[in-house]
Amino acid sequence: MFIYFDLGNVVAFFDRAQQCRQMGEVAGISPERVHEVVLDGRLNERYERGELSSGQFCEEFRRQTGSRVEDAPLLHAAAAIFRLNVSLIPVLGGLQDAGYRLGLLSNISPCHWEYLVGQNYWNLPGAFSVLALSYEMGALKPEARIYDLAAEMAGAAPGDIFFCDDIMGHVTAARAAGFDAVQYTSTPALVAELRGRGVRLNY
Fold it and tell me: Homologous superfamily of 2-13+83-196 in CATH?
């Protein structure tokens, strides 16, 4: 069995409202305007899909908002919104010790990934042998293509992949692609799902 984890709100929690506040502060505009441009529009989607580099994301943000904010503070404001899900650390360690191969399957932008890796969290990226990141793959969950690519990257048949994601729509799409997928609600519930599938780990 190959085990894929979503990143946002599974491995690390994040706060979109905080992102909009912080970006608004450095850009001199309201959080509501940031939300309108970045999240309601396609700017974040294009960034996470890999259609835009970090520089292009910033340039497009400035164009749409009339802001003169420089790239570095804008990207930091966009990315400094994560906190590690510490309850998952012993589970990841236990799965590693038991010999399971682990991967990340995440809709994520370059600045978010670089920020997380830069925090030196012990399990990013070291615990994961496969990094299926949307901006590198050119596809987003819940599109069927991203699950097909993730299976290829893992070198596993879809039916041999277990996947957990906090968004039920992504879980449903993963199941349609042949994965054994569950919604992440809590770490004890995830461990129960794994044990129900015969996974034995020290937790």
Answer: HAD superfamily/HAD-like (3.40.50.1000)
